Amino acid sequence: MLNAERIREDFPILKRKVYGKPLVYLDNAATTQKPRQVIQAMNDYYETYNSNVHRAVHRLSQEATEAYDEAHEKVASFIAAKGMEEVAFTKNTTESINVLAGSLSRQLQKNDEIVLTQMEHHSNIVPWQQAAKRAGAKLRFLEIDGNGELKLQQLRETIGKKTKIVAFTHVSNVLGTINPAREIIAAAKEIGALTVVDAAQSVPHMPVSVKELGCDFMAFSAHKMLGPTGVGVLYGKEELLEKIEPVIYGGDMISEVSFEDAKWNELPWKFEAGTPNMAGAVGLAAAVDYLQKVGMENVHQHEKILTRKAMERLKQIEDLTIYGPEAGKRGGLVAFNVNGVHTHDVSAILDAEGIAVRGGHHCTMPLARLLGIPGTTRASFYLYNTNEEIDKLADALEMVTAKMNKPAMTTTQGKAAK
Amino acid sequence: MKTTKQADAVEELYREEIMDHYQNPRNFGHMDGADVSYHDYNPVCGDEVTVQLKMENGTVKEAVFTGKGCAISQAAASMLTEQIHGKSVKAVVTMTQNDMLETIKINPGPVRIKCVLLALRAVQKGIVQYEANRANLAKPFSEKGLSKN
Fold it and tell me: Interface pTM (ipTM) of the complex?
């Protein structure tokens, strides 16, 4: 078990007040707050050894290079990859997926199929749409059922002979569903398709091992796991990263350049063109250290407790609809609607209580359309959230119904919807 | 239970007049034979409005709207239909963000300003389209640019 109260001491921002009330930060699926240890590591980098990596022989560059390479090693070990050759740093999850879609699209042929799910974030749909367009390939979508879980019985109908790539989210950023990654990957392997796991909402919140999953590629972001913005991770099996082409070219990703042509650098640098985000990498390494010290299983268990409590309390609120599966089958987030009240109004009333949640479509417009709603309000938890904060959320939501859900308004909505 | 500051934040954004317009919207409905009909949508939050206007001698003779969305967007639409009644085309198309904020009397912040402006932008786009069509109709046939199609 982790001690959330003690963990909170490490997060300067959690001491701040919003409208005179303590900040209740429940927007962790969007971005997480940073502990002193991460901020300090980045300050140290800038104050004592800032310099460009992999180039100069001077002392500072040696230190920076060492720290930068070590960050790759740490991330590799965090997800149980073979080593740093399997971990390239990008800008964020979105960029990692774009690199994959851009590179893999060159191997696609007309009528090949790319399988996604109906619960993907735009970042795991739009790059594949473009890849499919370039190659004349087709997109297919694994469907979700009424509980917001994938219809696994359709797995082998959707993933078929023509499937070349299966890309899916490990944990849905709206429904919270933890997808059965191993089953999906097994089905993809049976027909020799490549697998891409969008782990933006899983790696920060639970133990994730690429070795155990057996996926070919994975993408996630530092800023959703206590690290800074501007660093993402692209994991790939070494033999695959060797084989596929980079899509961003320039300095540091080459081994030899002539006026006519260039040879690519060794892994992972082949995928890291230009001066990288060095301070960001150092921050990510500190975040990994922090999470490993707490223990990812502890983080996961803590979020499970918060999620179960949140769902129990929210279910008591009249006119509140929760989306996605039961607490045991989801990550640390709950998306909901207070019937008849727009998500922006819900968010604004919670905001006035110092509670930060996210309202809107959460970059999953196709999913929202499928559910027939313009959006949801989402509360998402992390290791520093407490039971008391869940109570504050539920108390404030009770106020929303009282404030907004008057009979007169229901009539208006009825007319408007007509 | 609440401190003054928090109470202010909600009370200010959802002050009585806003809630009144949200719950009892003025000029809500459809109009037959409208001169201007414009639907606009904010993809970020899903707010939508359709505004319809009847024009006479270059002024707004009647304005109605339908829509769904947050309290701010719908209250703003309701208040706008009252405000532009009888105004000239020029006065309406030159209305600014500040004019709208003065009408609605809240500080929505940088994110929700889009909710405040949704109906105004719809009215303005609709009128511009209407004026362009009229100008086109008034032109001699040779200048209508129909040959392009």
Answer: 0.77
